[in-house]
Specification:
Layout: H1 2-32, H2 35-52, H3 59-74, H4 87-99, H5 103-140, H6 144-166, H7 174-191, H8 198-214, H9 218-231, H10 243-265, H11 273-282, E1 301-304, E2 309-311, H12 321-324, H13 326-329, H14 339-359, H15 361-376, H16 388-402, H17 408-426, H18 432-466, H19 472-482, E3 490-494, H20 501-506, E4 509-514, H21 517-521, H22 525-537, E5 540-546, E6 558-560, E7 568-572
Parallel strand pairs: 3-4, 3-5
Antiparallel strand pairs: 1-2, 2-4, 5-7, 6-7
Helix pairs in contact: 2-5, 2-6, 2-18, 3-4, 4-5, 5-6, 5-7, 6-17, 6-18, 7-8, 7-17, 8-10, 9-10, 9-16, 15-17, 15-18, 16-17
């Protein structure tokens, strides 16, 4: 008895320590297996990224912002653009209508819109996941325990692809497209289950039409999904005849935009982005498009030969009109098939796909291990019939982009569908004691570096938020205002012009461009005088250039003091002309 008492007394501290530890581990496991945990993690992660990038902008985003503000002042017709789709700028215009941002608040507001779209994407993925799991449950008899480890893997996959490949810092409609992909995929899974009605088929057509309004590429991809569901019928519950209802709904809702697009470009078109992209990335019609004869109907007007200077003040609007609607400036250029050029384009897109494969090596390794475990049990890995359409839609998207141009963000939503289809066919066929740690290893390998990076950035993000420093484009815009430029004034820009964010901030317009900066800086004083007079004649108030050489001190250049390494300089054209020394 004494010995027993002594032993019990010795074990009590260990028990008091072990029970809270086990309880904490159990609580953490339950939390990770909950959808609510992943919602919280996703929103916090995206919120930190949105806050950190709130002053960021990209060239495409500048055009979407111009479309949104144009819709506020000129009506919804300003959202019709031969190149850019109207859905994303429509959301921005609604936010601008509600909040009425100042120039300083515009870029942060757009990142707030991106955060809202991310929340919609998370909602859409949750809808898809539940439908996908119900569809998988019908095939593989998924248990509650298996569902608990499927949730972390599925939501971890979603977060990694959306936040790493798209993010909330890029001002582009790719998050909108991912949202549409998940809603459409969720409805596709629902159609495979008993009890689907005509409402689900109408909903599929409606969602695909919304995808087309978000991005023109979703028009052929929407048709591709309907074709895939028809050819690879997921189950006996999907009614092929009712898919015609989806098709009719899709085409009827897309018809108004197709009509407006066709009227704008002068021929039947669902959007010119594919044609222009093929010209640029396959036919290699690049910077020389305005010089050589490519059959253009209305190219930018050549103002002067030396240095080569273009003017494009009208009829296209926007901060930088050449990018605001490229379909107008490229109208008439002939798309031609050249086998050598097509092969070169395929090589470029395959490099992008190779990079995606390298980044997703953890998914590949996990799938190989699961296949090995299935083979060890003398079973064959197989993808069930109800998942083939997910794979086929993914490969249709890869093929379409491979022919012209691809970026990882274009495929983020499709990659989520692809890997869930693959792992859904494998992880429920392996004992959970093997499957759970493999899935955990895959997700942890991918997500932990990103989470650590975000956590590490929080102090700097908060510091920058509290003691905000104006971004460089704001400093340039303020300086231009101080020099006397006013809203609506016209600028000429030397060199690359797509990132003229300062012009948007100061409400200026870039209406002329000298593409070759080296040629510009070699001008003599009389040549610069002649160029300045020609620019002033079309209403240009100033020339903005970067990296002014020390040797070009003869003009009345004002250097704009900003923190970036590529300092900007401005030459006001109201200044007295330079003396003609020759």
């Amino acid at each position: 008895m004494p010995t027993s008492n002594l032993q019990g007394t010795a074990d009590q501290p260990e028990l008091r320590f072990r029970e809270p530890l086990l309880s904490s581990i159990s609580f953490l496991a339950d939390a990770i297996g909950s959808v609510y945990f992943w919602w919280c993690l996703g929103l916090v992660w995206a919120g930190v990224l949105a806050l950190a990038s709130r002053h960021g902008m990209n060239p495409d985003g500048l055009d979407y912002l111009d479309m949104a503000s144009g819709a506020l002042s000129g009506g919804p017709s300003k959202l019709v653009n031969g190149y850019w789709s109207p859905g994303y700028p429509a959301l921005i215009s609604i936010a601008m209508l509600i909040f009425r941002p100042s120039p300083r608040q515009e870029f942060p507001l757009i990142h707030g819109v991106n955060f809202f779209i991310f929340a919609l994407a998370l909602l859409a993925f949750t809808f898809f996941f539940r439908a996908w799991l119900s569809d998988t449950h019908r095939t593989e008899s998924v248990t509650d325990d298996e569902r608990r480890y499927a949730i972390p893997f599925a939501f971890g996959t979603f977060l990694w692809f959306t936040l790493q490949f798209i993010g909330v810092g890029l001002v582009a409609p790719d998050l909108c497209v991912a949202t549409i992909i998940f809603f459409a995929a969720g409805i596709g899974c629902r159609l495979s289950l008993p009890g689907s009605s005509w409402k689900h088929y109408v909903a599929l057509g409606l969602v695909l039409a919304a995808g087309y309004y978000a991005k023109a590429a979703m028009f052929p991809l929407g048709l591709a999904l309907l074709g895939v569901l028809f050819l690879w019928r997921p189950s006996q519950y999907l009614d092929r005849q009712k898919l015609l209802l989806s098709l009719i709904t899709f085409l009827l809702l897309a018809a108004p935009l197709i009509a407006l697009m066709s009227r704008r470009v002068g021929r039947l078109s669902f959007g010119e982005v594919g044609r222009v992209a093929y010209l640029v990335y396959v036919n290699q019609v690049g910077d020389d498009v305005w010089v050589n004869d490519h059959g253009l109907k209305h190219p930018p007007r050549k103002l002067i030969d030396k240095p080569l200077t273009y003017e494009f003040a009208s009829p296209i609007e926007g901060t930088y009109a050449l990018a605001y609607d490229p379909s107008y400036w490229y109208a008439g250029a002939r798309v031609r098939f050249d086998l050598r050029q097509q092969i070169m384009a395929l090589k470029e897109t395959l490099r992008v796909y190779k990079d995606i494969l390298e980044k997703t090596a953890a998914f590949i390794a996990g799938a190989i291990v699961l296949c090995g475990l299935i083979l060890r049990e003398k079973r064959l890995p197989r993808i069930p019939r109800n998942s083939w359409w997910q794979l086929a839609w993914f490969f249709a998207a890869c093929t379409m982009y491979a022919l012209v141009y691809a970026e990882a963000r274009y495929l983020a939503g499709f990659l989520v569908l692809f890997w869930l289809a693959v792992y859904g066919a494998l992880m429920f066929r392996v004992n959970k004691s093997y499957a759970a740690p493999i899935l955990a290893a895959v997700i942890c390998t991918l997500m932990i570096p990103g989470i650590v990076e975000v956590v590490a950035s929080v102090p700097a993000t908060l510091q920058n938020f509290v003691h905000a420093k104006p971004p460089d484009y704001e400093a340039v815009a303020v300086r231009l205002r101080e020099l006397g430029l006013q809203s609506g004034d016209r600028l000429a820009v030397v060199g690359y012009s797509n990132d003229s964010y300062y012009a948007r901030f100061a409400r200026l317009r870039v209406v002329a461009q000298i593409p070759n900066a080296d040629e510009f800086w070699r001008l003599s004083a009389p040549e610069l005088n002649r160029l300045s007079q020609r620019l002033a004649a079309i209403g240009v108030k100033a020339i903005v250039a970067r990296n002014r050489p020390v040797s070009c001190a003869f003009a009345n250049w004002r250097d704009l003091n900003v923190s970036n390494s590529t300092g900007s300089s401005v030459l006001l054209l109201e200044d007295p002309p330079l003396p003609d020394t020759h």
